[in-house]
Design goal:
With 242 residues, the chain is of the alpha+beta class. 33% of the residues lie in helices and 28% in strands. Helix 1 packs antiparallel against helix 2.
């Protein structure tokens, strides 16, 4: 059993101990009040005990709910958050500027083979694509594939030693509303601009200019401007989650 699971089990046991102690105290007070102060009204005592049993069942449901809230707001050991400065320093070499004959956008390095992830609308209908890295290196890119329904596209540059730094991919389904997120991109062509916000909502649906419905969209209040499209959204572990 991990330390996290052990701590969680101990906490669950403590919750039950607190509830049981409260019930025992209530029964003791009730017994004293009924027998010694109320003349030994056993019928009233039995009624109150039945009420306490009902309260105990209700408490069990409340404990289950509280345990879930505790689980949501705790992170397992071994998964520490890092500060946003560290996120920027770790990932800036992996975020690229994408320029086409129709406009600009952002993207991020997926692997050392030269695959780069961006948005479909960044490269849609483009006849030429070039990628500028944080180092200033500029490489031509080709379109590998695109999906207008998810607004995703994959382009590829020739692998260059020391230039491609893949990012770590996280699990977006575990995002919680209110969780801090970091966006890095190239708004208005300004390279490697970072903005910070929170997850405003998850599971949103939006339509593209071509009337494609995109589902499971993450809504955030982090500033997103023209040119940010295709850039990564990070959680506080530095993982790409959008």
């Amino acid at each position: 059993m991990s330390a996290y699971e052990s701590n969680q089990s101990n906490r669950d046991n403590m919750l039950w101990i607190i509830i049981v102690v409260m019930m025992v105290v209530n029964v003791g007070v009730l017994t004293y009040t009924t027998i010694y102060d109320g003349g030994g009204d056993t019928q009233t005592l039995q009624t109150e005990i039945d009420n306490l049993k009902f309260q105990l069942n209700s408490a069990q449901l409340q404990i289950d709910s509280l345990k879930e809230e505790i689980r949501i707001f705790e992170l397992p050991s071994g998964s520490p958050d890092i500060n946003v400065i560290e996120i920027y320093n770790r990932t800036r070499n992996s975020v690229v500027l994408i320029e086409t004959d129709l406009g600009t956008g952002s993207g991020w390095v997926y692997d050392t083979l030269g695959h780069i992830i961006t948005n479909n609308h960044v490269i849609e209908d483009a006849t030429s694509i070039q990628v500028t890295f944080q180092t200033g290196d500029v490489l031509k890119a080709i379109l590998v594939g695109r999906d207008p329904y998810s607004d995703m596209a994959v382009i590829k540059v020739n692998p260059t030693q020391g230039l491609l730094h893949p990012l770590t991919i996280g699990v977006s389904s575990k995002l919680l509303v209110g969780e801090t997120v970091v966006a890095i991109g190239n708004p208005f062509g300004l390279a490697n601009t970072m903005t910070v916000g929170v997850v405003s909502a998850t599971g949103r649906q939006m339509s593209t200019i071509d009337n494609y419905a995109i589902v499971d969209v993450i809504q955030t209040d982090a500033a997103i401007n023209p040119g940010n499209s295709g850039g990564p959204l990070f959680n506080l572990k530095g993982e790409v989650i959008g």
